[in-house]
Amino acid sequence: LTGFEPFHTHPVNPSSVSAQALHGRTLGGYVIEGALLPVEPAAARERLDALLDWLTPDAVLLTGLASGRPQVTLERVAVNVMDYRIPDNAGRQYHDVPVVPDAPAAYLSTLPLRATLRAWRDAGIPGGISDTAGTFVCNTVMFHTLHALHAAGREDVPCGFLHLPANAEVAVAEPRAVPYLPQEEL
Ligand code: PCA
Prior knowledge:
By secondary structure, this protein is an alpha/beta fold. The chain has helices spanning 14-22, 41-55, 113-122, 137-151, 168-173, and strands spanning 2-4, 26-27, 30-31, 35-37, 60-65, 72-75, 77-79, 106-108, 127-130, 159-164.
């Protein structure tokens, strides 16, 4: 379970707060390893490769913040493009470059998307499927991880990305009005 460090103008990143809160817990027979990713593509990819090697996980859930979205959303697809609308945490902006040259144009999430939505619904949690993870670091990391699992013959490991709405701290710092969920619920 990964979350990101704060980025852009956001004072905190609810994704890493959640990942940290769940670290070490056992849920449904799975022990959760919560990890923090930098908002910079090379360092994030290096960290992910190390985690995949070290843990050989049974499943990979990558999470990040999408301030402005009203609900939790599972990403359907990662595209092989980096086109950063804002600078990453190293101050760099990439435009129209592939995440992995000569790799497929896209990978689909291998998480059970529909079954997850049904389980959320049964638990009273509103959420949905998103058809774009954007072209910033979250998409980079999702593409990288799906590609790495594929290249290692581990495409049977369910892997995908969950975007979280703002928490109260993030919403308060936004210049515009954005919906938020309490961190506890996230
Ligand atoms: N959200 C950004 C990058 C880090 C994060 O939490 C994104 O959606 O790409």
